[in-house]
């Protein structure tokens, strides 16, 4: 396959990979940041309303008992799956059809409370209308209180969601009933065999369920259901919180506060948490991805997540970002400084690659001459002669084809940086951008992205207009993906590309100066004319 055909395919494939388009279904609907809110509407078509907490990261549907019947984590932050019609009603068809959208509870109920002889999620109950359906975006909170009575026991659930992360605080109070109850956490959507494990307060490593078996872990530090880590994988993690009066330094010394977890594996995976009548749990329901878990404080829990090589780089990057934020205090400026720092670190490597590119451009006319010279001569001797001429050309221009491989050396850092910024949850906007974690709602960054990339392509192919025309259309394809990039990612790409253009212009001038005399014919200096000798005077011999 010719290079001019291979490059577009590689570019498109790279765009698909970076955007995870091939795994997450359709690209998102472009729009402004979603304002977190509670929506009260009929979601399931049955009598009574449901209560939907919507945000950039997820849409969580509660019934009147405070049980989660729909838990939709968004592959692309800011995707508005819920549409409001002109008459004020809501269209939930995108969530219900589930095309490319995963419902983590898969038709079951999470946060359901169960107790033998007293509380049954499948039985009728006397329900009180939920109260406190409030949203405080500044404090990163969406609150609600659900209450119902069943079998003489009253259950009160106070739920707090956090729109900028996947955490839910669940406080449960059962009065007039048993001392301990079970809270059910089913999952994970369409995953037929997630990893199911639990770590006890005194354990060093988690205990894992084998296959579709069942395992009881007493006094858990955490219990978790997890898919294999990726950008589209999910996790459900339960962490007991110390209740009032418990000893925070030693929760195990408070038997009544202990949380015991019965873990079930397989397609019907389930965590059944046995909790006191008054309990406080922290629930994580979202992406099984390093940056989100790190920001939630879970990467230090043994056995929960083991970063790979790229993950380790991501952790260094995110810690650097947090350190810069403490000094600068603005995430947009943090990204600017981070871009400059990383480009400065990678400058020597990019210098090698840039010089290789510049020399190749300078050599292009000579390469074309050699190729034209031998294009109709396919015999072995001619091909060998062409290779010898090309090798000599490389020597003349001090060109090393291996320099092209320097392009790939920064890739681990670039991939890790992409993943870090893409998944990092910022708590502020920048300039006209309401949220750096979602795409630019006005599409200005996407247009700037297109312009600077076309500019970079021109700088790199200025001596080969044909190559410029062949590759320029690629960026029209990239423009479509740029519309879906989080604004923070696009800012990094634009700034990095601008710095790269400036570096390449400097390199081009250096290389052109260095190679200016290569291949020029050196005229032989004219020989100095011999000085004209004076005519010798002839002296006749004397006559005898």
From TrEMBL:
Query: In the UniProt record, does the keyword Magnesium occur?
Result: no
Q: Which residues form the signal peptide?
A: 1-24
* UniProt keyword Plastid present: no
Where does the record say this protein resides?
Answer: Cell membrane; Membrane
Q: Identify the domain of life.
A: Bacteria
Q: List residues of the Membrane insertase YidC/Oxa/ALB C-terminal domain.
A: 331-509
Q: Which family does it belong to?
A: Belongs to the OXA1/ALB3/YidC family.
Output this protein's name.
Membrane protein insertase YidC
């Amino acid at each position: 396959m010719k290079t001019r055909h291979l490059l577009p395919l590689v570019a498109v494939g790279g765009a698909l990979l970076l955007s995870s388009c091939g795994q997450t279904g359709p690209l998102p609907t472009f729009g402004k940041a979603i304002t977190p809110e509670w929506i009260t509407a009929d979601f399931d078509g049955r009598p009574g309303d449901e209560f939907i907490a919507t945000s950039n990261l997820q849409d969580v549907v509660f019934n009147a008992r405070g049980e989660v019947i729909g838990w939709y984590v968004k592959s692309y932050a800011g995707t508005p799956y819920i549409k409001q019609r002109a008459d004020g009603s809501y269209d939930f068809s995108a969530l219900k059809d589930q095309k490319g959208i995963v419902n983590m509870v898969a038709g079951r109920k999470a946060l359901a409370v169960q107790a033998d002889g007293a509380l049954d999620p499948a039985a009728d109950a006397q329900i009180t209308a939920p109260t406190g359906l409030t949203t405080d975006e500044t404090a990163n909170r969406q609150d609600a209180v659900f209450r119902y009575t069943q079998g003489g026991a009253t259950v009160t659930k106070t739920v707090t969601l956090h729109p900028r992360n996947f955490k839910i605080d669940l406080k449960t109070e059962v009065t007039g009933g048993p001392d301990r109850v079970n809270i059910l956490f089913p999952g994970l959507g369409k995953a037929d065999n997630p990893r199911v494990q639990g770590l006890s307060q005194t354990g060093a490593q988690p205990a894992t369920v084998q296959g579709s078996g069942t395992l009881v872990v007493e006094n858990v530090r955490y219990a978790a259901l997890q898919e294999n880590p990726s950008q589209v994988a999910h996790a459900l993690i339960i962490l007991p919180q110390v209740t009032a009066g418990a000893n925070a330094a030693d929760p195990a010394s408070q038997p009544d506060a202990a949380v015991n977890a019965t873990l079930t594996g397989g397609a019907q995976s389930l965590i059944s948490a046995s909790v006191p009548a008054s309990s406080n749990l922290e629930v994580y329901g979202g992406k099984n991805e390093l940056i989100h878990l790190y920001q939630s404080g879970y990467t230090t829990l043994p056995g929960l997540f083991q970063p790979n090589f790229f993950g380790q780089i991501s952790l260094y990057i995110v810690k650097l970002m947090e350190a810069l934020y403490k000094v600068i205090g603005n995430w947009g400026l943090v990204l600017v400084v981070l871009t400059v720092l990383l480009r400065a670190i990678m400058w020597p490597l990019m210098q090698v690659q840039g010089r290789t590119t510049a020399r190749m451009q300078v050599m292009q006319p000579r390469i074309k001459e050699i190729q034209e010279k031998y294009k109709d001569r396919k015999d072995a001797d001619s091909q060998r002669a062409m290779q010898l001429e090309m090798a000599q050309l490389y020597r003349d221009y001090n060109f090393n084809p291996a320099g092209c491989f320097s392009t790939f050396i920064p890739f681990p850092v670039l991939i890790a940086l992409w993943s870090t910024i893409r998944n990092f949850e910022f708590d502020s906007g920048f300039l006209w951008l309401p949220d750096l974690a979602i795409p630019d709602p006005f599409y200005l960054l996407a247009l700037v992205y297109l312009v600077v990339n076309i500019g970079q392509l021109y700088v790199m192919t200025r001596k080969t207009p044909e190559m410029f025309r062949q590759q320029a259309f690629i960026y029209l394809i990239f423009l479509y993906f740029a519309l879906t990039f989080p604004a923070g990612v696009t800012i990094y790409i634009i700034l990095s590309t601008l710095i790269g253009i400036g570096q390449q212009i400097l390199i081009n001038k250096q290389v052109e100066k260095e190679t200016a005399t290569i291949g020029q014919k050196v005229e032989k200096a004219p020989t100095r004319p011999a000085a004209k000798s004076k005519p010798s005077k002839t002296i006749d011999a004397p006559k005898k």
